[in-house]
Fold Glycosyl transferase family 2.
Amino acid sequence: MVTALFYALCVIVAIQAIYYLGIFSNFAFLSSKDTASRKEVPVSVIICAKNEADNLRENLPHFINQNFKKFELVLINDISSDDTLEVMEEFAEKHGNIKIVNVAHNETFWGKKKYALVLGIKVTSYDYLVFSDADCKPASNLWLQEIVNNFTADKTIVLGYGAYNRVKNSLLNALVRYETLLTAMQYFSLAKIGMPYMGVGRNLAYHKNEFVKHNGFANHMHVRSGDDDLFVNEAATKKNTAICFSPESFTSSTPKTTFISWIAQKRRHISTAKYYKKKHKFTLGLFYVSQLLFWILAITLLTFQYQFIYLGAIVGFRFLIQYLVIGFSAKKLQETRLIWLLPIYELLLLFFQFFIFIANIISKPVDWK
């Protein structure tokens, strides 16, 4: 029985090796050299905000001061109860390239945030759309240029990276950043091998024709979240998707500060995964299951004191390739501090993901804000 468990562990480690060396290495070992040429096309930057007055005051100057020739900033007030609209109007008075969309109360019955975004997209003046959030700020004044540089005649969707700010001595903060790193490594890698499946609304861009061709969010308007990942899952292909991961192209934001609020956020995000294409659900699901089984089998065999040389060799090999691939990915995304406690973060994340999966079966997650 114990020997059978060891053979099962070998199979699981082989599956993990295929993921890390066959898939995730496509991003980890990808050259960071910028080969995209500078594009001079007008762009519409879209930010949807709900009760984000303080964040807008702090972050809007970073969007307004982008070193980019021609762009407009479309600000969407999604029925805020604070001073969000007033803050938007203050900035609009000072800057002529700002448009404001004020979503009225009687317009909220249909799609919530997605409907608000549709209203914003309708008023845009330009064909290239770049999305971010009110609680985000660009890492540099070259953010917009770096993202736009990746558009070509064929590449009409650009996936960027939305980082979270580091908070010292916070386990939750480290866990959130580790999950963000792992998720980015996955969607960048799968995009590189021709299987783009998601992007993050904190840093995402696409041509308006893609939005029109796929009828906007119509196919998943009933889903609470997914204005970013579900749209990309539907519209992105091997030919039309590019990735952008230069440090100047990052956005950054402050993550949730309590486990309760973070879990609520993750429940909304994870609830969209069941709407992904079958091949993406299978690929992501198999990776998660292989992670979980690795720990279960490894701990079980260790408990039975199975042959330590063989067990140590197979477990050590798995951690070696994991540290190697995630380490190089973390270097690209400027999160190298996270790799030292990687096994702890992995175990915690697996536990919370399993808990969230069960919680979503029992009850539905709440709407955004």
Q: What stands out?
A: Strands lie at 43-49, 71-78, 98-103, 128-133, 136-138, 157-159, 162-164, 204-207, 241-243, 251-253. Residues 15 and 290 are 7 Å apart (CA to CA).
